[in-house]
Amino acid sequence: MRSCFTKLPRIVAALLTCMLFAILTDCSSTHTTPPPVLVVSSGSGQSATVETAFSAPLVALVTVNGKPSVGVSVIFTSASAPGCTFANGTNTETDTTDSNGMATSSVCTADPTSGAYTVAATTLPAAGADFSLTNTSAAPFAIAATSGTPQSATKSTAFANPLVATVTDDDLNPVIGASVTFTAPALAPTGTFANGKATETDTTDANGNATSTTFTADATAGGPYLVTATVTGVVTPATFSLTNK
Question: Would you state the pLDDT for residue 120?
Fold first, then answer.
């Protein structure tokens, strides 16, 4: 029994040593706060006509350890030409996260250049997130003959090059998806498109270009004569000068 009591102080000392080591180890360990995480919440994938406002603001969510982070400054920065400007008249602004961890930009307005681009949202030391936006061209303002004029072809044979008309808006952006009607004279000398008629309608591509099918001279020599290209909303047509030899 005495031997047990004599060992007791050593046991207690060992226990105290273990407890002290645990406390010191815990206190001396480094506790770091994980970095914030920033993600797109809403507003990405929008389109707006050049020089008009997007329908919704851009919203970024900031969290730490999966919980909303309040009072964090988020910087929104748009590309330019194409790009957009915020309510402060520039392509960048800083907004602060609310009680839900959301930073909401002012409404961005598309600049005069059409095309797709990104708006970056950043807050240090988190990795940034990108919003995808697109500025679309305005209504057709002008149409011009950009290829295929002047040309000549032997009668009853095809012209070497198609007729290409380019449609632009009032900021000179290409208008995509516009219907362009090519029309040759009703009387000889003239020609026909691949549909066997003196007129056809083609759609502008991503560069605003409408390209005709192959145009074939009729059996009458003469010219030059004009083939026109028209688009709704534009008074003055584009003209192509052709000659049948």
Answer: 98
pTM: 0.78
Please identify every stretch of the chain with a pLDDT value under 50, giving residue numbers as ranges: 1-18, 20-29
- Contact, 103 vs 15, CB < 8 A? no
Q: What are 199's two structure tokens?
A: 């007129």
Domain 142-244: which CATH number of 2.60.40.10, 1.20.120.450, 3.40.50.150, 1.10.287.70: 2.60.40.10
pLDDT attached to residue 30 = 54
37-136 against 142-244: fold identical: yes
Distances from the Cα of 81 to the Cαs of 85, 113, 134, 200, 233, in angstroms?
11, 5, 11, 35, 26
Tell me the per-residue pLDDT of 20-53, one tens digit each, with 9 for 90 and over: 334 444 444 455 778 899 999 999 999 999 999 9
Q: For 73-76, which contacts have Cβ atoms below 8 Å and span 24 or more sequence positions?
A: 73/103, 73/123, 74/38, 74/103, 74/121, 74/122, 74/123, 75/120, 75/121, 75/122, 75/123, 76/103, 76/105, 76/119, 76/120, 76/121
Q: Which residues pair with 228 in a beta bridge?
A: 183, 239
Fold of the domain spanning 37-136: Immunoglobulin-like (2.60.40)
CB-side exposure of 241: number of CA atoms within 13 Å?
2
Q: How crowded is residue 225: how many other Cβ atoms within 10 Å of its Cβ? A: 18
How far apart CA 154 and CA 220 sit, in angstroms, is 9
The CA–CA distances, whole Å, from 139 to 75, 143, 147, 178 equal 33, 12, 22, 9
